[in-house]
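User: Okay, second chain of the day. Same drill as before: sequence in, structure tokens out.
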Amino acid sequence: IAAYNAPFPDEKFQAGALVFPQLVPTTPDDPSSQYNRDA
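Assistant: Same drill. Structure tokens below.
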């Protein structure tokens, strides 16, 4: 378990990894899905 935490010396370094999945649209009707289709 210590090896899993090795790259993150503090919880604040894990914030991006914890928030990122919420930023990825998972359904076609998600408001940000259209931006991905347009890209």
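Residues 15-23 form the longest helix (9 residues).

User: Thanks, on to the next one.
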